[in-house]
Write a structure and sequence with these properties.
The protein is mainly α. It has nine helices and four strands. The protein has two domains: about 210 residues, Alpha-lytic protease prodomain-like (Up-down Bundle); about 80 residues, Alpha-Beta Plaits, CATH 3.30.70. α2 runs antiparallel to α3, α2 runs parallel beside α6 and α3 runs antiparallel to α6. It starts with a helix and ends with a helix.
Length: about 300
């Protein structure tokens, strides 16, 4: 099997896994939501919303992976629709903030006016949520995971902790009768949601504002040390999405002939790949050009 076919097969497998995990977690969210509403557990409701956020994240990862496989770049969409992943992540993260605020408000009301919760049903549903997360983790782990799969895997670990917290809070209420433990656990889950939102917003904003994913000055220095390179200017590196890094740069070419210049260009591309750049546009300028002479002079 060729390397391209192997990469395509891995991509299809990754997309299928993300789609399956999305469906499993949406089912888990629905069960926890209904259970929280029926049996009065704010911690169960909070865990349900946390699961909804992660399920949405998996769904976005699935959609972006699916569309990147089926929508090829053309004259209208130079890089296809990969940026949809980043836009979706940003809006998803932004919506988490008011969600966490709602959980905090409801938890505050529960502190003021504690309510009876159905302990046994809450434990049963929480255990079901724990099993959903555990099955998803087993399904994703193993082999080399894609970036999207790794992100989903870490989210699932957090969800597992939330499900354990729900179960423990219900057991504590059953044994001690201390009802405030339910909103206390909800507050902890709200904190986890805010942390997740901050992480998603920081990552998506960095991509949208085209922050360089590498140390540009260090990379520039390594290129300038290469044989045949007099100077490097106008180097720009940014993420198209979480999986694709793009770069453009001008190189003052001091090569003696075309063959040497070709080797220099290939060496630069090889170095850029080692730094994680997937697509690069390199403008080779002769050393006698005015701008190039100015850069070398400095």
């Amino acid at each position: 099997m060729s390397e391209d076919n192997h990469d395509h097969e891995n991509s299809v497998t990754s997309t299928r896994k993300l789609g399956t995990v999305s469906a499993i977690n949406l089912i888990g969210f629905s069960i926890e939501l209904v259970g929280g509403l029926l049996f009065g557990s704010i911690s169960l409701l909070s865990d349900a919303f946390h699961m909804l956020f992660d399920a949405t994240a998996y769904l976005m990862a699935f959609a972006s992976a699916f569309m990147s496989e089926h929508v090829d770049p053309d004259n209208s969409w130079s890089y296809g629709l990969h940026r949809l992943e980043t836009l979706s992540a940003f809006f998803n993260g932004a919506l988490l903030i008011p969600l966490a605020g709602y959980i905090v408000w409801e938890s505050y009301n529960r502190f003021l006016s504690p309510v009876e919760i159905g302990v046994i049903p809450t434990v049963a549903i929480g255990t079901g949520g724990l099993l959903v997360n555990f099955i998803s983790i087993l399904y994703l782990q193993g082999g080399k995971m894609s970036l999207n799969e790794r992100g989903a895997f870490y989210h699932l670990l957090g969800d597992t902790g939330g499900s354990v917290a729900v179960i423990v809070s219900a057991v504590v209420i059953q044994i001690t009768g201390f009802k405030p433990v339910d909103p206390l656990v909800a507050l902890l889950i709200a904190g986890a949601i805010v942390w997740s939102a901050a992480k998603v917003l920081r990552g998506s904003t960095s991509i949208l504002l085209q922050k360089s994913p590498v140390e540009t000055d260090k990379l520039k220095g390594e290129i300038q040390e290469m044989e045949g390179v007099g100077a490097v200017r106008d180097i720009r590196i940014w993420n198209l999405c979480s999986r694709i890094v793009v770069a453009t740069l001008h190189v003052c070419d001091t090569s003696e002939d075309l063959e040497e210049s070709t080797r220099t260009r290939r060496g630069i591309r090889k170095l850029l790949r080692e730094w994680g750049v997937d697509h690069a546009t390199i403008e080779m300028e002769g050393a006698d050009e005015k701008a190039c002479r100015h850069e070398i002079g400095h």
